[in-house]
Amino acid sequence: MFMIQCYALFWLFVTGSSLKMLMDRLNNDNEEEQQEQREEIESMGKFFSGAYIGRMFFIVGALLLLIDCVGMFFTYQYVDFRPWQLVAFYLAVAALFIDSTHNFYQLRALKAESADVTAILLEQLDDMDSPWTLLSLVTIGVKLLLAVLLVLWTIF
């Protein structure tokens, strides 16, 4: 049980940091910071190929998806859900599946031979008004709720 408690805290911290990063991107009014992010993306596009960057992002995305799947499995096993929480759980699973499918589909564009990696990554950075960003925000919010439930049911 101790390992599950440790994993619950780890999942809570990972999900909380993901939410913080997304909220920072949504509320980013600092032009210097945006320009610095653009320069980092441009330099990454110059030094690495699109296939390498796509493979790197795919590995990181798959690792984060694995962390979320294990967290949701533990949540389903150890949390005594109320009916509204069970609905939130199933909505989180569906939203996570849709969001992950969309993210992996976007990463596929990076693997093309003639892909302009810098343009694709800058487009993803600037596209904060899309419905996919809202879906990502909802997914991360519900995962954070599930992580809190797992922490509460396993630790307290």
Tell me how many strands there are. 0
Strand content: under 5%
Structural class: mainly alpha
Distance between the termini: 12 Å
- What is the helix tally? 6
User: What is the H-and-E element order?
Assistant: HHHHHH
Q: What's the shape? A: elongated
Give helix % range: over 70%
- Could you list the spans in which at least 5 consecutive residues all have pLDDT below 50? none
The biggest beta sheet reads: none
Radius of gyration from the alpha-carbon trace, in angstroms = 17 Å
- Rounded average pLDDT: 82
What topology does this entry show?
Blueprint lengths: L1 H25 L4 H17 L2 H29 L4 H26 L8 H10 L4 H25 L1
Structure description:
With 156 residues, the chain is an all-alpha fold. Helices cover 85% and strands 0% of the residues. The chain has six helices and no strands. The protein has helices at 2-26, 31-47, 50-78, 83-108, 117-126, 131-155. Helix 4 packs across helix 6 (131-155). The longest helix is centred in the middle third of the chain and has 29 residues, at 50-78. It starts with a helix and ends with a helix. The model has no long low-confidence stretch (mean pLDDT 82).
